[in-house]
Design brief:
The complex is a heterodimer of chains A (about 120) and B (about 110). With about 120 residues, chain A is an all-beta fold. Classes of the chains: A mainly beta (about 120), B mainly beta (about 110).
Chain lengths: ~120, ~110
Amino acid sequence: EAEVAQSPRYKITEKSQAVAFWCDPISGHATLYWYRQILGQGPELLVQFQDESVVDDSQLPKDRFSAERLKGVDSTLKIQPAELGDSAMYLCASSYRQGDNSPLHFGNGTRLTVT
Amino acid sequence: AQSVTQLGSHVSVSEGALVLLRCNYSSSVPPYLFWYVQYPNQGLQLLLKYTTGATLVKGINGFEAEFKKSETSFHLTKPSAHMSDAAEYFCAVRAGSYQLTFGKGTKLSVIP
């Protein structure tokens, strides 16, 4: 079964440094999501793309976070500067289309530790 | 607005016993409901989903869930727990706005 690819799996960075995560969704999936999952919590949506356009970034801390999906395929999430509170698992997911009952397919995530 | 509440952050069952993980939702429009499972250091995997129609939904690995509109519930069950079922389980709701909202999760431990 096709998978959502994410890299790196683990990242340790010092506060105030920049960090970037990469995601390659399942081929043909137009909708891409970035979620943040704090330890012991459920995933929370950061940003949603439909093709190359941002559909929802209302929960993205735009002073330090940015996301792009230039060609409507793979995507990059960046944090600059990183803060201690950013330590979490960052999950990418994709779906064939947005809305209704189209299920999300998740990657294995990037676990970020900020020291 | 929509929300989901999972009752019990940690549930322990004996191997072979019934698994029951509770989920209640709140939604102003008819919801779509999902259960996902997450193994340590992995992403989430879809177990089952409710859209419309039959209220008893069967998923993978022997799990099933029943949508009860009157109780705004979507509890997850499995008749007999296996050691491999030990994981964290997330209930999620989507209604109207297309944004999937997750509960805080229930960690299932299976005792041999």
